[in-house]
Amino acid sequence: MEIFAQFKEMEPEAASEQIRGLLTDLDLVEIEDILVKYLSGGQKRKLSVALAYLGDPAIIFLDEPSSGLDTTSRRQFWEVLRARRKGKIVVLTTHYMDEADFLGDRIAIMGEGEIKTCGSSMFLKERYGVGYSLNIIKKNL
Fold this sequence. Notes:
Layout: H1 12-25, H2 41-53, E1 59-63, H3 71-83, E2 89-93, H4 97-103, E3 107-111, E4 114-119, H5 121-128
Parallel strand pairs: 1-2
Antiparallel strand pairs: 3-4
């Protein structure tokens, strides 16, 4: 099939190097010999992302890649994703607007199963605002 023409076989040394780099970047080196069923939820999430990057694909789909990670791990994870996106199309879903803001060149907002709007982070902030406004009125009793 024509669609598979872009895929090439990888030399074992290159594959080992790529795996080592992913394990290092995603902080999984210490657990590389542990069976998946014994990994924490966050470790499984990171492993799934590592698997998505294997073979150096041009397009990567990630479904809520940082869910289940603590705040510090999430930020480190975002740095890895950002560093590895060059030359790739990465499509990811998230409920975290700060994640979409940090990682996304274009952000689509969905509601009721449909894309409601799409644009850059700046476009969305200018159009829909940056935050919330809270007014408090104190009544004299």
